[in-house]
Protein: Polypeptide N-acetylgalactosaminyltransferase
Amino acid sequence: VRRKTKILIFVSLVWILSIPVYLLFSRNALGEEYNEGLKLKSNFSPNEVPSMLRLSNSEKQEWRYFDERKYIEEKSLRVGEDPYRRNKFNQAISDSLKTNRPIPDTRHPACQNVMLHDDLPSASVIITFHNEARSALLRTIVSVLNRSPEKLIKEIILVDDFSDDASDGEELEKLEKVRVLRNDKREGLMRSRVKGADAAEAEILVFLDSHCECNVGWLEPLLQRIVEDRMRVVSPTIDVIDLDNFQYKAASSNLKGGFDWNLVFKWVRLTPSEREHRETHPTDSIRTPMIAGGLFAIDRRFFEKLGKYDMQMNIWGGENFEISFRVWSCGGSLEILPCSRVGHVFRKQHPYSFPGGGGGHVFMYNTRRTAEVWMDEYKTLYYKAVPLAQRVPIGDISERLALRKSLGCKPFSWYLENIYPELRVPSESSGGGKSFPELKQGSLCLDSLGKGYSNPIYLYPCHGQGGNQAWALTSNGLLENLNGQGCLELQMGSTLNVIHALCSPHNPNQMWTYLEKQLMLKHQNSQMCLDSQSNNELLDLNSRPVIARNCRPDSASQKWFLTTS
Ligand code: LR7
Ligand code: MN
Structure:
């Protein structure tokens, strides 16, 4: 009998002990679905632990978990509240999804065979946020913890950029590996990221936006490329999380980061020779002139040596140009890795305020600081594309100029010739009024007035400077703004508004035909014509949206001159 009891005790001991081992190894077996729950730090006293706490069989070793649902539901939408109001993405859908939901592995199959070093250094992940939806923020954190090898994540540093509710961040302090820093006033993403970087302890910094989902194997390629060369700054391929339904979609790997002279970031197609190389080497990194800015990894000491960020930049925008010009011209390199995938919720509008002058103003302020410090004589091309910027005061840039000098960085012409030769540099002679294509009606021009996507389009006196008035008909029928502000799209609702929207070459609502004889622009899908309505002289200039109407060849408000550059 005693022997039987011994065996029984032995068997049950083995069984109990095997549970943690099973949990450890079940990760792969369970794949995406794995998330036993977010573990709490051990130093939280039990009365701070929320209701969902779980205890293991033995008394000593307790597993305690964070109550994710409670955290999210404390900030649920109210009955009847517009789900886009707070975040400019669909919060109802975001809140309804599991924090560890499965997402498709969007990597090229060959990525699985890439050899990885087995002694990669660990990373500090830095996420800054201002009033982020709790579900989106938590899903970002869970995806980092679940889809990274445990030992490669030293810590996740959340920098709360003075969100209205301090508990959004504070409650997450309880999570294993998570540290929370909070600004006592709104600083913007640049100073917030530097605050996070200054507190970081790992060798490598990884920056993420607060509404991301890291995909399987996302981290290792980033670390590997940096270990091989500490002056590389590497970005994952940024997949798309749909702002309406949160579907996770693969992004094309045939794109890199670029821009026009208005200094607005845009994705550009790889050159034919780069595409050819990718066909035979689908896992190779892609050199990019510019990074989108939010999602990248960099060696901590290199980040410091290179001057972190411009601490006088505010809120949002322009810092990705500054760091990209700086990295390339001061000895480093930028690349996008096709085998590292992270999803990001792309929005059409900012959900937050811009203290200090509004979004356009702050963006021009930051961008102008970049242009004045890094672009030498080429800055005049920026001012030509965005004339308003010249009137924005930029403060003191002497520190950044001194930095550029002390680092011995190459001139901007070197960057243009060697890193972004595809960018067309307008020649001196074409500087006169006619260098940009326009859509004219008398002395008025089609003008976005700098309003973002989804806004109507207007008529405004022609200024010949391009920018918001640089519209051209592409060979596939899009009316595209040459400064990356999108394409004209007819909204097929009750009123036939014409808005500018993200260009999508196969969207029938963005296809137009120019009837050269009649000088009319016909919308292919609806057979309606672009109409300025401008005969309504009672309306103020900036409130004369252009619409579509039944085509009437005798109507002056439907006559358009398409000038070319
Ligand atoms: O005042 C602020 N304080 C903040 O902490 C304003 C914003 N933020 C946070 C915000 O919560 C978010 O986590 O900063 C992050 C970026 O702001 P978003 O998500 O509102 O802007 P975005 O997605 O348009 O940002 C892109 O461009 C920015 C330019 O300043 C930054 O470089 C972002 O990091 C960048 N995001 C990406 O690169 C992801 C891919 C998008 C593309 C292309
Ligand atoms: Mn973002």
Observations:
- Residues 209, 211, 294, 344 surround manganese (II) ion (ligand 2) (CB under 6 Å).
- The CA atoms of residues 473 and 479 lie 4 Å apart.
- The two ends are 97 Å apart (CA to CA).
- DSSP finds 14 helices and 24 strands in the chain.
